[in-house]
Amino acid sequence: MRINLLQTTSGFSKENEKIRDEEIDNKIHITLTIISIINSPTRFIVRETPTNSKSNKVIRYNNKPKYRVLNPNQIKIRYNIQRTSKNNEEGVPRRPYNWDGSRRGTWRTYRNKRYKKMRGKEVWIHAIWHNPSEGTLGNLKYKVLLDK
Questions:
Q1: What is the mean pLDDT of residues 83-109?
Q2: pTM given for the model
């Protein structure tokens, strides 16, 4: 079943209606693609703000914050965040596949029998970012936005 977003009028030909329907389909596809990229659990949203912006003046377009959707490795490369030590406090080496330990927030449902009081309930697990979440690089101030 097709949803017709624009009502047809007698002044438009069938060709124009097909072109308009294709444009609408393309816009819907682009919008859904952007939403799926933002909602990906492997990506974080980073807010970039120029450091030379003054808070008491009207914010101009080039001084407004910009938001980027990046995965943890892209964030570390873009903002020159150095890799933390390969060993934790006790001197035990970290696992190579999980050296940053960052993750987005997610819902956890307790299903196992051992959770007698919590079985069937959902709990929100907060996002974790083990590297510095705020900093400056040149004239940009960046902040990794978590779900708090």
A1: 63
A2: 0.58
Question: Which secondary structure element, helix H or strand E, spans residue 125, and what is its range?
Answer: strand 122-125
For the chain, the helix, strand and coil percentages under 3-state DSSP, each to the nearest 5: 25, 25, 50
How many Cβ atoms sit within 10 Å of the Cβ of residue 112? 8
**How big is the CA angle at 75 (ends 138 and 66), to the nearest 5 degrees?**
65
Chain CA centroid to CA 146, Å? 9
What are the tens digits of pLDDT across the range 122-142?
A: 998 888 777 778 888 888 888
Q: Is the pLDDT of residue 1 over 50?
A: no
DSSP 1-49: -----S---TTS-HHHHHHHHHHHHHHHHHHHHHHHHHT-TT-EEEEEE
Amino acid at 61: Y
Whether 47 contacts 143, CB under 8 Å: yes
